[in-house]
Design a protein that fits this description.
The protein is built from 20 helices and twelve strands. With about 425 residues, it is α/β, with parallel strands linked by helices. It folds into three domains: about 110 residues, no CATH class; about 60 residues, Sun protein, domain 3 (Alpha-Beta Plaits, 2-Layer Sandwich), CATH 3.30.70; about 210 residues, Rossmann fold (3-Layer(aba) Sandwich), CATH 3.40.50.150. The strands form two sheets. Strands 5, 6, 7, 8, 9, 10, 11 and 12 form an eight-stranded mixed β-sheet that branches. A four-stranded antiparallel β-sheet has the order 2-3-1-4. Strand 6, helix 15 and strand 7 form a beta-alpha-beta unit. The chain starts with a helix and ends in a 7-residue tail after the last strand.
C-alpha cells in the first residue's frame, strides 16, 4: 500500500460516484486512461471501488460525507481490518485524523437497512416479500464478490477435459482451485475472479464466462436438436451460445436484440464457439414488423427481459443506488409488453420462458401471474419438473428462483409457459 495507490482508488471512485453510467463502464474508461497501471494496481483500485459501492451507505455514515478518498479510507479501516499503523506511511495528517473520526463513530441504533447497505425502499420491498431474516441473508450475501463461473462449450470440449487441462498447468489454476458447479452439469467455478480471456481454452472457444444461474436458464429452456428457438432479448448472447450448444449445433436459433453493438459482441464470441446454427438479428423493438412473419414458428422462445438487475448486486453493486421505485414500475410495464409480443412467436405445443435477474416479485411472480390471467391458451409448466427430467438436482418449485446465499449464483427468476395444442393440431 502506498499513497499513490490510495490516490488512484479515490480518483476512480470519484469518477464512478459522479457519473450516471454503470460502474463497470466508468471503471473501464478510467483504466483505459491509465494504461501505465500494472495488474496489481488495477486489482487494488477495482476491489476498492466495488468494496465501497457494496457498503456505500454505512461508509458514508462512518465518513460523515461522500468524499471519495475518505470513503476508501473508511472501507480499508472498517471492512478490510486495516489499522492506522498499516496505513500510516501513505496518509497525510488530515487523513490520519479521518481514521480517528471513523473509528469513533458508534454503530449502535442504526436501522437494519443502513446496516445491510440497502436503500430504504428496496429493504422494505425485500422484507415485505421474504420476511426480515431472509431479507437480511439476501442483503448480506450481496456484500461478497461473485465467484468466477465458466460454461464448458460442449460442442468443443467436455467438462472433464477442461478440468484436466487447467490442472495440468503450473499456474493459478492448481488442483482443487477449479471445481464443478453444484447444479449445472457443464459449469466450472473458481473461488475468485481471475483473468482467463487470454487462456488457450478461452481463445479456442472451449469455455465461456457465464454465471451458473444463467447456465441453468439454458437448461430450463430445454431446446432440442433440430428445433426453432428464439432468444428474444439476446444482449451479448451468453444464453444464445449456451442454447446453441445444447442443440448440438442443429436446428435454427435466432438471437434478437435492439442493440447492434451487443449483437456485434455476440458475433465475436460466435466465431470462437464453433456454432453454425445461431443467427443474430437486430430489431427496432418488440413491435418490429419483421417479427410478424415468424409468428407461431418457434418451439422455444426465451425472454430474458430487461430488468432492474437487483439479483446481480455482487457484480453490479451500484445498481441498488441507481434504481428507484419508479424505475421498477416502468420496467414492469415494459416486461409485460415484451412478453406479450414474444408469446406470438410460440407455436402450438411450444414453450415461452420468461426470466429476469431480479429479486422483486413486481418483475417476477406478478408478471407471470398477469401473463397467465390474460393468456388462457398458455399453461405453467413447473420448473422443477423440467430440471428433474434433465437430471439436474434443483427444486425451487413451479418457478426457478435462485439466490446468492442459497445457491451461490446471481439472483434469478424464471417461469415456463406452454402454448396448449388446439384440437386441430393435437
Amino acid at each position: 500500500m502506498n499513497a499513490n495507490l490510495l490516490r488512484l482508488a479515490g480518483m476512480a471512485l470519484s469518477e464512478v460516484l459522479n457519473s450516471d453510467g454503470p460502474a463497470d463502464a466508468q471503471l473501464s474508461a478510467f483504466f483505459r486512461n491509465k494504461r501505465e497501471l500494472g495488474t496489481k494496481e488495477r486489482a487494488f483500485v477495482a476491489e476498492s471501488v466495488y468494496g465501497v459501492l457494496r457498503r456505500l451507505r454505512m461508509l458514508t455514515y462512518y465518513a460523515g460525507e461522500e468524499d471519495a478518498r475518505k470513503l476508501i479510507v473508511a472501507w480499508l479501516v472498517k471492512f478490510q481490518g486495516m489499522s492506522l499503523r498499516d496505513l500510516e506511511a501513505c496518509l497525510n495528517a488530515q487523513q490520519k485524523e479521518w481514521i480517528q473520526e471513523i473509528k469513533s463513530k458508534p454503530a449502535d441504533g442504526l436501522s437494519l437497512a443502513m446496516q445491510v447497505d440497502m436503500p430504504d425502499w428496496l429493504w422494505e420491498k425485500l422484507v415485505s416479500q421474504y420476511g426480515e431474516s431472509e431479507a437480511l441473508a439476501i442483503s448480506r450475501s450481496m456484500h461478497l464478490p461473485a465467484t468466477l463461473d465458466l460454461r464448458v462449450n460442449t460442442v468443443k470440449a467436455s467438462r472433464e477435459d477442461v478440468i484436466k487441462k487447467f490442472e495440468s498447468e503450473n499456474t493459478q489454476f492448481n488442483k482443487g482451485a477449479i471445481t464443478p458447479t453444484p447444479f449445472s452439469p457443464i459449469g466450472l467455478r473458481l473461488p475468485q475472479r481471475m483473468s482467463i480471456n487470454r487462456h488457450v481454452l478461452f481463445t479456442e472457444g472451449k469455455i465461456e464466462v457465464q454465471d451458473e444461474g444463467s447456465q441453468l436458464l439454458c437448461f430450463l429452456v430445454a431446446p432440442k436438436r433440430g428445433e426453432m428457438v428464439a432468444d428474444f432479448c439476446a444482449g451479448a448472447g451468453g444464453k444464445s451460445l449456451g442454447m446453441g450448444a445444447l442443440m448440438r449445433n442443429t436446428g435454427r436459433l435466432y438471437a434478437f436484440d435492439i442493440s447492434e453493438k451487443r449483437l456485434h459482441n455476440l458475433g465475436q464470441r460466435l466465431k470462437r464457439s464453433g456454432l453454425s446454427n445461431l443467427h443474430a438479428q437486430v430489431i427496432s423493438s418488440e413491435n418490429d414488423q419483421k417479427l410478424k412473419r415468424l409468428n407461431e414458428k418457434f418451439n422455444r422462445v426465451l425472454v430474458d427481459a430487461p430488468c432492474s438487475g437487483l439479483g446481480t448486486l455482487r457484480r453490479n453493486p451500484d445498481l441498488k443506488w441507481r434504481q428507484q421505485p419508479l424505475d421498477i414500475s416502468e420496467l414492469s410495464k415494459k416486461q409485460k409488453s415484451i412478453l406479450e409480443k414474444a408469446s406470438k412467436l410460440v407455436k402450438s405445443g411450444g414453450r415461452l420462458i420468461y426470466a429476469t435477474c431480479s429479486l422483486l416479485s413486481d418483475e417476477n411472480e406478478e408478471i407471470a401471474s398477469y401473463f397467465l390471467s390474460n393468456h388462457p391458451e398458455f399453461r405453467l409448466i413447473p420448473a422443477n419438473q423440467i430440471l428433474a427430467n434433465q437430471q439436474i438436482n434443483l427444486d425451487t418449485g413451479d418457478f426457478l428462483r435462485l439466490f446468492p446465499h442459497v445457491h451461490q449464483t446471481d439472483g434469478f427468476f424464471a417461469a415456463v409457459f406452454e402454448r396448449m395444442e388446439t384440437k386441430e393440431t393435437a
